Amino acid sequence: MTDTQATAHDHAQGHDGGHGHSHGRIDPSILRSRAGLRAVSWSLLVLLVTTVAQVVVFLATGSVALLADLIHNGGDALTAVPVGVAFLLRSRVAEKRAGYFVVATIFVSAAVAAVTAVERLVNPQSIDHLAALALAGAIGFAGNELAAQIRLRAGRRLSSPALIADGNHARVDGFVSLAVVASAVVVALGLPIADPLIGLTITVVILRITLDSWRTVRADRRHDEPSG
């Protein structure tokens, strides 16, 4: 062994052989878990700030329609909990189940949107506080879209169908908020009949996202056992 080789060998031992300090290696599943939890946490923080902003508008207007949208968004944000738990457990099985749970929640959102739209077609309702509703809807769309981007990017990077599905779910909520803006605009223009029609259009969009999310989760057949 030459002096250069000996020096390199001693240096390697000093780093990895236990004769010096050791950097160690972190299990890739731990790194993946941390990245997933970080994405879920940041997206939830964004949604929390969004909700607080909408609450401020609600307190200023007392709009029942806005309150309903707030409750809807708040409940839907909880879908991040099973996804976060799956990352914490480092379990692909739990992650896939969380993905199916998110897909089911998206489908329920579509059903609720459809029923509400049909009911408004049959029994038209007046909408008040149009400017406030449009503002709250714009805030909801921006917040949900940002949360969707955080989850979708992390989901693709980590190859996590559950996180991708939850990103799609946040995007669905953004579309619902955008529908609130559109409804406020058309009602202000004197076209109240367009409000439920917008609702039906959003329902079709949500159903398409539901199908895409289900296919994404179902297609992931790797790692049928917990990885942690």
Task: Walk me through the structure.
With 228 residues, this protein is an all-alpha fold. The longest helix is centred in the first third of the chain and has 34 residues, at 28-61. Helices cover 82% and strands 0% of the residues. α5 runs antiparallel to α8 (194-219).
Low-confidence stretches: 3-23, 223-228
Overall strand count: 0
How much helical structure, as a percent, in the residues?
over 70%
Overall number of domains: 1
Q: How many alpha or pi helices? A: 8
Mean pLDDT: 81
Provide the CATH topology: Alpha-lytic protease prodomain-like
Tell me the layout of helices and strands:
Elements: H1 3-17, H2 28-61, H3 64-77, H4 80-89, H5 92-122, H6 130-157, H7 161-188, H8 194-219
Features:
disordered N terminus, 0% strand, 228 residues, disordered C terminus, Alpha-lytic protease prodomain-like, mainly alpha
Short characterization:
The protein is mostly helical and 228 residues long. The protein is 82% helix and 0% strand.
